[in-house]
Amino acid sequence: MNEVASRSGFQVVGIEARTNNFLEAEPDNARIAKLWKRFADEKIADAIANQTQSGRIYAVYTDYEDGDDEDYSLVIGCAVESVSSVPDNMVLVNVAMGTYQHFHSEGEMPLELVKTWGAIWEYYSDSEQYRRVFTTDYEVHDASKPNEVDVYVAVEPL
To answer: I need a labelling partner for 74 at 20 to 30 A (CA). Which of 2, 19, 36, 140 fits?
Structure first.
């Protein structure tokens, strides 16, 4: 089983897209890949002040409308110590303090990460221990480990 632990909340500044799994299943309509491309092309990380962890990029899933069946927001950015102002065209998201289940993805990215999310959806469809709470879920992408991503899913016991 994947580790379940209480985790502190934190803040992330980054760029945002609103999407859903139906859109993401169609390459022409998918927004997540375009958001990642924009993050890299525009060097968004360079414009974010007060970063807490150099070389780490966070992908925060939040503002779920109805679980993972409807729209949600994805913010790609950096964890910050404090925020005096948010740069133009960026947002601030609070990652909720709470109980998270950790999943590790390793291999060719983004293919393995997509497989990991598929396994996550399947796991919670019949889990007898935990259910997703759809507050905030997040991925940690570490530049020093380009073929690894850690995924944290907000949960509560059944």
So the answer is: 2
